[in-house]
UniProtKB/TrEMBL annotation:
The chain crosses the membrane at residues 113-133, 145-163. Keywords: Membrane, Transmembrane, Transmembrane helix. This is Rod shape-determining protein MreD.
Length: 168
């Protein structure tokens, strides 16, 4: 196995464990639950096999569902996120994505913030829509999506800044 493959596998395992052991137990004011496991999907290399990526996103969501007893909402949201990610890569990074040369630690902050925000909000909206599954509770869905989304975006940005590898 290459170093990149081991890095991806380690990120997968660590994010699932941190999510189910720490972040699943955080619940501020009933609306704020951080879901940092989606960092795996957000930071997955853009030039890899897309079918493998969608399958890994399913496994990621499935493991979080198993440990959270959430009935498949994380798996559905993760697969959807993995499927629509190329659209948001192109929207956020433009020609850098077209040439498959994105290095997240070398992109400007505004592009990174746009990319993270779009994916987190989509993930949370799908997840909470499936979890609540009642159109009359749309305000609750939007409230949970907004507040958890903001908290997740902030945590994901902090984590990527703290753990980014500085290259000269």
């Amino acid at each position: 196995m290459t170093k990149a493959t081991l890095n991806i596998a380690a990120r997968f395992v660590v994010l699932v464990l941190v999510q189910v052991l720490i972040f699943n137990h955080i619940n501020f004011m009933g609306y704020i639950n951080p879901y940092i496991y989606i960092l795996f999907i957000i930071l997955f290399p853009a030039n890899n096999n897309r079918t493998l990526f969608v399958f890994l996103a399913f496994l990621l969501g499935f493991f979080v569902d198993v440990f959270s007893d959430s009935g498949g909402v994380h798996a559905a949201a993760s697969v959807t996120l993995a499927y629509v990610r190329p659209v948001f890569l192109k929207f956020s990074f433009g020609t850098v994505y077209d040439y498959q040369s994105i290095k997240f630690n070398q992109t400007d902050f505004s592009s990174k913030l746009t990319y993270f925000s779009a994916l987190v909000i989509i993930h949370h909206f799908i997840m909470y829509s499936l979890e609540i599954f009642n159109i009359s509770k749309i305000l609750l869905i939007l409230q949970k999506t907004l507040f958890s989304g903001i908290f997740t975006i902030i945590l994901c940005l902090i984590i990527t800044i703290l753990f980014s590898q500085k290259r000269k």
